[in-house]
Design a protein that fits this description.
By secondary structure, the protein is mainly α. It has helices spanning 15-20, 26-49, 56-72, 85-113, 120-124, 126-155, 163-176, 184-204, 207-224; strands at 2-3, 6-7. The protein has one domain (27-229). The radius of gyration is 18 Å and the shape is globular.
Amino acid sequence: MWSRRGFMSMEGTSPAQAAATAALDGGERRYRLVEFVALFFGLPAILAATPLKFPLLVMLFSALIVCTIMLWFDRSFDRRSLWNSAGAKAGFVGALALWVLGAVVLGSMVHWLTPERWLYLPRERTGLWLLICAVYPILSVYPQNVVYRAFVFQRYRGVFRGESAMVWASALAFCWAHVIFHNWVALALTLAGGLIFARTYQTSRSVLLVSIEHALYGLLVFTVGLGHTIYLGG
């Protein structure tokens, strides 16, 4: 696996050995905790505070490349998790049912509280909406789930012990990344979404399933009229 001291053994590991890698010594655990806070909370705070605008897709793909390389050379990581169609098939119906419920609740709230925003993109900026529907799942959703689900769960599983702690760590990191949009709605939406996505990944170990789920919720947000809260061009 990867540590700050570089690549460790490249030999295969048994399930028992893989599980053992989650147990970090005190120094390594503290280091990874500091690393987690710096990368997933400190860096977004700095980006939010600076008046400069950074190319978000460039930063996201840079993070994707680094995280993928680290996962690839971590012999305790099951690479099938980066897709895992079997896990996606097993969990799809449950994820879809929860999304339908979420769509009804969120859509009703937007229609009631801000009727002027209801279906804004499909009605007023149809071309942009169609473009988002086409490219958002590929260019934004999948990379985010490699970083905030696969990488966070693998890299920091020895720091946040217990299923609930790991879910909350992933969800809060994902939520705080959206502080750059400077509005509480984005943080509220992504905290709720982060908890759902983290739990889905934890139970399915399928980035494919989480990405489908994430795309459905994200496109729902853009469609019902809240896209401006999570889109710098809005």
